[in-house]
Every structure is written in C-alpha cells, then in structure tokens.
Amino acid sequence: MNKKIDIIGAGIAGLTAAITLARDGYAVTVFEQHADVGYRFNNDFQGLENWSSKIDIMQELASMGISLNFDYTPYSNGLIFTSRGQAISMQSRIPIFYLVCRGSNSETLDYALRRQAEECGVVIKFGKRIETHDGRAIIATGPKAGDIIAAGITFKTDSPDMAAVVFDDSMAPKGYGYLLVRRGKGTIASVIFREFRKASHYLTMCQELFKSRLTLDIREPKKFGGFGNFFMRKYQNRNNKLYVGEAAGFQDYLWGFGMRYAFRSGYLAAKSIIEESDYDMAWKRNLRPSLETSVVNRYLFERLGQRGYHYFANKLSTGEPVDILGKNYNPSLVKRLLSGVAVKIYTSRVKNRECNHVDCTCVWCTCAKNGQLGVFGN
Ligand SMILES: Cc1cc2nc3c(=O)[nH]c(=O)nc-3n(C[C@H](O)[C@H](O)[C@H](O)COP(=O)(O)OP(=O)(O)OC[C@H]3O[C@@H](n4cnc5c(N)ncnc54)[C@H](O)[C@@H]3O)c2cc1C
Fold it and tell me: 45 pairs with which residues across the strands?
C-alpha cells in the first residue's frame, strides 16, 4: 500500500486531514496557493459553535487527535438585539461557542494547525496553486462562490470582553450582525444573504448599533470581507479525489458556521483512507443529516421576519440557549421531509457544479459577472 497523499488547500479541512494521515505514517504533502495559512481571513474572531452536538467541540477536536494548541475562549453569555432596540441577554450553563482568531498570525487557529501539521512531518508547499491533479488527493480548496457575504472590521479597544448579535433585516438582510471582543481586540461584521452590493452600508449600520448601545470604543479599525458557499453533492469521492470542507459544500446553511464541518470532514476523509473505508458512506452518515437540517433551518429563518426574530431572541433569553439551538440544529423527521424542497430553493451560485473542483478557475465573482447565476433563494 502506497502511504503517500497530496492535499490541496491548507485550511482547517485540509490540515485536519493532513495531521490525521501523517500521524498514521502517511507521507503528506499539502499544496497551498498563498504564502502562508489563513490568508482568507484577517485575524478576525470567529465562533466555534458548541450547540450542534452534545459533545463539547473542544473534546471532539481532542478525540480527533487535534491538539488544542491555539487560543480559545469560552463564551457562555451574550446580548441579542432585534429591530425593537432593546438588548436581550442570554446566559448558558455551558459555553455557547469558543472564540478563536482566524488568519496568519501566531495566535490564530490556522497557524496552530500549521504548526501541528509540520510537527508531525507534513510538508506544506506554499505559493503552489494546483490547477489539475492526476493521482489520488484530498481536495480542501474552500468555497468557490458567494452564497453568503460577510463585511466586517477588526479593531483595537479598551472595552471588556463581550459578545453580541443582532437579528434585524435593516442591519443584515436574512442574516445577522455580530460583535466579539476579547482581550483588547474586537470584530464586528454583518453577515448577509441578500443585497450584496450594500454590504458596506449594513456593516456601518451594525457598527453604529453596537457603538450606541454598548460601551464600546473602536480604535484602528481595519475592514475585511469574506464569503461562503452552499451546495449539496451526491458524491464527494470522485476521480480518486476526496472533497472536504467548503470545497465539498459542507457549510451550515443557516448561519455559516462551517468550521466544525471542516474539521469533521477532513478527519472523516483521512480515516476513510487509513481504514480503506467508504468516504461517501461516512459523510452521508455523519454530516448529511445536519446539512439537510441546516437548509431547512435557513428556509424557516427567512420566513421569520422582524417579529419572528424578536420571538426567537426572547426564546433564547428565557431558555437554555445551547439546548434551544441544539434542538434546532438536530435532525428530525419533519426537517428531513422538508429538506428535499428546501435544497431545491437554496441552490448555489455555482450553477455548473461539475466545475467546482480543483482545476476550476471559475471563482464566484466571475460567475456572477457572466450573469449565469440566480440570486440565492430567489
Ligand atoms: C468572515 C467569515 C466569518 C466566519 N465566521 C465563522 C464562525 O464564526 N464560525 C464558523 O464555524 N465558521 C465561520 N466561517 C466559515 C469558516 O471559516 C469556513 O467554513 C472554514 O474555514 C472552511 O474551511 P476549509 O478548510 O473548508 O476552507 P478554507 O479555510 O477556505 O481553506 C481552503 C484553502 O485552500 C487554498 N486553496 C484554494 N484553492 C487552491 C488551489 N487551487 N491550490 C492550492 N491551494 C488552494 C486556499 O488558499 C485556502 O487556504 C466564517 C467565514 C468567513 C469568511
């Protein structure tokens, strides 16, 4: 058996696969188009959600063999704003999420994964964009299309650590705005599912809201943007290539919490190579039910409207947020039945899915310019 494998893309999914395979004795080479890991991010804060499973995410990562050698901070409470203006507080008995930093600096999750991979012998070839690949490989190239857009700022601040979210279509159409502060640094972003051209406007609205309603000073703001991609494919093992992370469409349709999917799919793909088992069976068993649930959640969330957001916020405030979110993220028969319809409604901006592989140069903005794409949800 040839214990040698190439991985395209050094994001969470690719590096998780690399670490798992290298620990099993594989000679792993990762090809990354940029000069370092984390180029897609801006040293902004993200949340590793802790509600979609009864198993704590940090415990889950440890059980996959991922060392917790990165900065992470549990957040068990936060504020929710809606169009009615008042701050609704939520408090949980266990962490709702763990805040991590994304990007290239030494505090980031991405840098920590790079270090782990290199320590176990993975060779990462930076500045190598792979257009085609003939042999066996894991494809971990991230999103190709913008079905969801985030516009944000990172900043310095003297404000205390805090987390806040806003559900209000005038600040983030069909999405949400968020504020995360930890140890003198902060991130604000508006995550939108509509009206992409007005992303800057929505970011300004979120910024104004958080500044006016919270004791928040913002110094040295730096703008950033990002996007995520949603699509469903029947097979993720094609032409001797295993697709993982957002390259496989593994994303949370509801709010874009894709990191847990990236870890899980990278791990599952690596395990299937090590155990010579069926990767398609593994992701269908472990990831598809929650993917289908998330597309139904998106369908339902888009129908809530301003009053519905307020009702939902109050529910989170009066109950146990992790349980309420967990219940919504967990598969049920009704959601399973609805998912067939919802998947058809929420088709990706990448219309030709066959082009969504490693030798595809069709990035999302080019597609949009060609006018080939429908608007997400329309
Ligand atoms: C602004 C923003 C905020 C987010 N917030 C959250 C959050 O709070 N919680 C959460 O769970 N998720 C969040 N997400 C989503 C999450 O970051 C992603 O789902 C996750 O990082 C996907 O990991 P990945 O490994 O699949 O892809 P990526 O992280 O995109 O990694 C892909 C890598 O492949 C490289 N690559 C691409 N093509 C090639 C090629 N042809 N050759 C070589 N290299 C290539 C890229 O340069 C990149 O390094 C957010 C995303 C954005 C943009």
Answer: 101
Q: Which domain holds residue 297?
A: 290-369
- For residue 311, being part of any structural domain is answered with yes
Q: Which of 37, 246, 364 is the pocket-test mutation for ligand 1 (most atoms within 8 Å of CB)?
A: 246
**Residue 362 domain-assigned?**
yes
Going from the Cα of 315 to the center of ligand 1, the distance in angstroms, rounded, reads 31
In this structure, are residues 38 and 110 in contact, taking their beta carbons and an 8 Å threshold?
A: yes
- Asked whether residue 118 is assigned to any structural domain, the reply reads no
Helices 109-119 + 12-23 axis angle, to 10: 20
Number of domains in the chain: 1
Measured between alpha carbons, how far is 329 from 51 in angstroms, rounded to an integer? 8
Q: Does ligand 1 have an atom closer than 6 angstroms to the CB of 46?
A: yes
DSSP letter string over 90-109? EE-SS-SEEEEEESSSTTSH
- Where does 103-245 show beta strands of DSSP type E? 123-126, 137-139, 148-156, 162-167, 176-182, 185-192, 219-228, 237-238, 241-243
Find the Cα–Cα–Cα–Cα dihedral 152, 157, 162, 163, rounded to 10°. Answer: 0
**Cα separation, 176 vs 20, whole angstroms:** 34
Residue written as token pair 């949800």 = 377
Exposed, middle or buried, 284 (CB in 10 Å: 0-12/13-18/19+)? middle
Q: Which residues contact 370 (CB under 8 A, 6 or more apart)?
A: none
Residue 259 in contact with ligand 1 by CB distance below 6 A: yes
pTM of the prediction?
Answer: 0.93
Domain assignment present for residue 76? The answer is no
Per residue in 122-175, pLDDT (tens digit) is: 999 999 999 888 889 999 999 988 889 999 999 999 999 999 999 999 999 999
